[in-house]
């Protein structure tokens, strides 16, 4: 049985470093080091990101089940985790990273899943096809909360049913999607692996190979630590219904 755990955001800084070019998906070619962030960010972009991050505290701005924090290295890189509770991916714990271009909000950010997951819109490197939803990206209308709601919706059945083959960056997942039974089984298996102890705590796990994981850290809690957290938060022990 999976033990109790907590996810801890680290402290943040706002000075971005030099970045790398975008690839043919319209996303950054690599996020394998702390230096892979946009270069020469404008004051407008920095201000926009600061305001948008602050706005996530408002009701309904950050979707339920998503936790997000700026990277320790840059305001232009945000680390997040998504907990799914229903549908094909019920029970999945998914880490992802949002990287903003230096001219944000004029251009769309890039989203890369750090956790391996079988999904039509996510390629083998973990990049997520945001463009399938934002046609086109509208700087004066679209904001980070729209991106987060798009990401969460992508794991719901109604949104999966709307995906077109041209937008599927994982063609194998798209083909399996034509068979509800097969897709459901593969999605459930993929989701189960995301919440294994090795996937959550082991930095040598294949999901983390060459991937950035500094922004959010999962920590396994001992019974004493869990009891202390529950007391601090005013939570009661979970009891079996017998």
Automatic annotation (TrEMBL):
Residues 44-200 form the UBC core domain. Keywords: Ubl conjugation pathway. Gene3D superfamilies: Ubiquitin Conjugating Enzyme. InterPro entries: Ub_conjugating_enzyme (IPR050113), UBC (IPR000608), UBQ-conjugating_enzyme/RWD (IPR016135). It comes from the Eukaryota. SMART domains: UBCc (SM00212). Pfam families: UQ_con (PF00179). The keyword Nucleus does not apply. This is UBC core domain-containing protein.
